[in-house]
Amino acid sequence: MDKKERKEEKENEKEKGVSVVPVARLGVDGAAGGDNVTVREGATITLTCRLTANPSVYNLTFYHNGRPMVLEGTAGGGQGVRRSLVLNNVTEVNRGLYTCLASNQVGDGQSNALNINIECE
């Protein structure tokens, strides 16, 4: 089964009311797809966790190098869950692996690992 067929199957299950664990895909807005992204030091990047789930996701946590990140601000993104993480003025501290973990009443779904490299000026 290819990627398109899996997507169609998930959409069909959702339409039928079938409960599914969240499927999460983490990416950098404006960057080509892939799990390795290099950005210039000082840049601002937005990491977005794209979700498919039924029932809706009630909690989403971003991780940096395996540690949960404490986020400030209000929830957003439709279902009361923040789906994007903005990193301003990135430095070497921001280098590493990022993931997101989405939870619904069925279970938890972890995203791909996204490796962020910082190119020093």
From TrEMBL:
SMART domains: IG (SM00409), IGc2 (SM00408). Pfam families: Ig_3. It comes from the Eukaryota. Residues 22-117 form the Ig-like domain. InterPro entries: Ig-like_dom (IPR007110), Ig-like_dom_sf (IPR036179), Ig-like_fold (IPR013783), Ig_sub (IPR003599), Ig_sub2 (IPR003598). This is Ig-like domain-containing protein. It comes from Petrolisthes manimaculis.
